[in-house]
Design goal:
The protein has a domain at 435-579. It has 20 helices and four strands. It has helices at 33-54, 63-75, 91-103, 107-129, 135-151, 160-174, 184-200, 202-223, 229-257, 260-279, 294-320, 328-348, 359-374, 381-411, 416-425, 430-437, 452-464, 487-492, 511-524, 552-560, and strands spanning 472-474, 528-532, 561-567, 570-575. It is globular, with a radius of gyration of 26 Å. It has a four-stranded mixed beta sheet. It has 582 residues and is mainly alpha-helical.
């Protein structure tokens, strides 16, 4: 029995439910625009509300903190790479800096923007899946996307969120190439979206352009009747031109104010030498308690089945000379397009095999599951069983993941509904009440909670330093680097005293970087420094657990600063008056 059957009509109901932009039957009566947009508006509003209620009140002191601090630095006139180390593109920093300039430098501003992008992502999932599936399946796929987004609350504010949206939009624009010619305008838009993705994350933006190239080449040479190089080039040129049109102006603007070697070091030289060594993790263990980790393993067979179904079905039709049903090139092209996206994003995250690092793969995998489930009756019995198994396991993993996140929010009192109830009933703890009554970047508009020790440290720095003074937040020992607190800079609205405020293994524990940091600290002379021992006991099976033996920065700090107070693992040091010229 063949794995993929031809000529079956059970899975081709999509022909009568296509969105106008991809409709292969332009002479068919179209639905009014209002009826098309109304369900999308409902999905967006519901997604925004659910995501807000599922949001964590706890800011991520490292990932989210470094983006907040970078945006604060940009708002103060600093340039990424030239004035501070950054391993992301500049787009997120400048967007947040613009929002901060307009509405104020509050965490709430960043979170509302973050929720906007996430709700648009959930809506995009629904809109992209709907032409290929029943409305219920599209709605469930969008709901699954919302749940996974909540499960990775720690990614709030990071460029990964807008990148996940741009990935889907860029490939949805080129998807019709599998069954018809695509307009130049649409191809220009696809390339421009990939260019925008590159400005958020250089690596994924370039990868996205590569995926578009592969999708177009596969469609032209294996699905379309016009199989020649001229058609391929005429289709690719607008994409590449638009990509360059978006990226090059920003590149030229950057090079007019900053040296090339700064961005080359941050984006190419350092990651090539140290990223894998300092951040690599083995495959996660699977247990009933952490069953959500199984998603990391589930993604590969899911991608494999999707690509096999599409490719096998196409080659069988060509070999047997069987006429395809009108919808087959559409859903086959869908599986190829988003299967390639999921595959590339999987290998992008393979250094750290964790759910957050697989987020860019998980989102397109949901689209694959939806279409495979919709078309399952066109498959052989073995493939139908395989698809149902993948669907069942996917439901289990997202269920375990969301239950785990809900429990975490409840245990640590970071739940938004809990905050709303406490506000109405007056049952919050004394330290939370006192913290929420203060006015700072974390509490204005909506009260976000750091841990108690960090709250006390933030309040101390805020009351003992002036807004124009610089701050240094580091570690008790800088010979071994895992992570550091970037949130305190933003929470106190104190600019970092060094360009190396974002810690990574192989950077701040090297002699050259520490020597530069000492010179910067001598010049800025921050009156207080904060040393956080939170990660002293963290040991991963990579180079972040290894000491370099370099203590130049530690020696300078202990000669120049004296202990003043401490809050749990956080110690605050004051500059020794006689050290003003050291």
């Amino acid at each position: 029995m063949s794995s993929v059957r031809g000529g079956r009509k059970e899975g081709t109901a999509l022909d009568t439910r296509s969105f106008h932009m991809d409709d292969p039957h332009p002479d068919r009566p179209r639905e009014p625009l209002r009826r098309t947009l109304f369900p999308l508006a409902i999905v967006f509003l519901l997604s925004y509300l659910i995501l807000f209620l599922g949001m964590s009140r706890e800011p991520n002191v490292y990932d989210e903190g470094l983006v907040l601090t970078a945006a604060m630095r940009v708002a103060a006139g600093q340039i990424p790479h030239r004035d501070f180390y950054a391993n992301y593109g500049p787009a997120q920093f400048y967007i947040l800096a613009g929002l901060f300039k307009t509405f104020g430098e509050y965490l709430l501003v960043e979170r509302l923007y973050d929720l906007l992008i996430k709700a648009l992502l959930a809506t995009a999932v629904y809109a992209i899946v709907l032409p290929y599936c029943h409305k219920f399946i599209a709605a469930m796929t969008s709901a699954a996307a919302v749940l996974w987004i909540i499960c990775v609350n720690g990614l709030a504010g990071t460029p990964v969120i807008p990148v996940s949206l741009l990935n889907l939009l860029a490939l949805a624009l080129v998807l019709p190439v599998f069954w018809r010619g695509v307009s130049t305008t649409r191809l220009l838009a696809a390339g421009a979206v990939a260019g925008m993705a590159a400005l958020f994350r250089y690596d994924t933006g370039v990868a996205l352009l590569g995926i578009q190239t592969c999708v177009i080449a596969v469609a032209i040479f294996f699905w379309r009747a016009e199989k020649n190089l001229r058609v391929l080039l005429s289709t690719l040129v607008p994409c590449f031109a638009a990509f360059a049109g978006v990226v090059l102006p920003f590149a030229l603007c950057y090079l007019s104010v900053a040296p090339l070697h700064a961005i080359v070091y941050d984006i190419l030289l350092y990651p090539a030498k140290f990223y894998h060594r300092g951040r690599n993790l083995p495959l996660p263990a699977i247990s009933l308690k952490y069953f959500q980790n199984f998603e990391v393993y589930l993604l590969i067979p899911l991608i494999a089945v999707a690509l096999y179904v599409a490719v096998a079905g196409r080659f069988r039709s060509r070999q047997l000379g069987v006429d395809e049903t009108p919808g087959e090139p559409r859903w086959q092209g869908f599986l190829v397009t988003f299967g390639l996206l999921a595959l590339v994003m999987y290998f992008k995250g393979i250094v750290r095999m964790e759910i957050p690092q697989m987020y860019l793969c998980i989102i397109p995998s949901l689209l694959l599951i939806a279409v495979l489930f919709e078309q399952r009756m066109a498959f052989s019995r073995f493939l139908r069983i395989s698809v149902m198994g993948l669907v069942s396991l996917s439901v289990l993993t997202v269920t375990f993941a969301i239950l785990h996140e809900i429990k975490r929010l409840q245990v640590y009192h970071f739940s938004v509904p809990e905050r709303l109830v406490e506000s109405l009933t007056g049952t919050a703890s004394d330290i939370e009440v006192e913290w929420c009554q203060t006015s700072n970047a974390l509490t204005r508009g909506f009260c976000f909670l750091a841990d108690d020790e960090r709250i006390e440290a933030i309040e101390f720095i805020d009351s003992h330093t002036a807004p124009g003074q610089r701050l240094y937040v580091g570690l008790p020992n800088h010979d071994r680097i895992f992570a550091n607190d970037n949130l305190t800079y933003f929470a106190t609205q104190r600019l970092p005293a060094t360009m190396w405020s974002h810690f990574d293994p192989g950077l701040q524990n090297s002699y050259a970087i520490q020597a530069q940091m000492v010179r910067e600290l001598q010049a800025a002379a921050p009156p207080y420094i904060v040393l956080d021992a939170e990660w002293d006991t963290t040991r991963e099976p990579n180079d972040s657990a290894i000491s370099t033996g370099v203590r130049l920065l530690d020696d300078y700090l202990h000669k120049t600063y004296q202990p003043t107070t401490s809050f749990g693992t956080i110690s605050i040091y004051q500059r020794i008056p006689s050290s003003s010229t050291q």
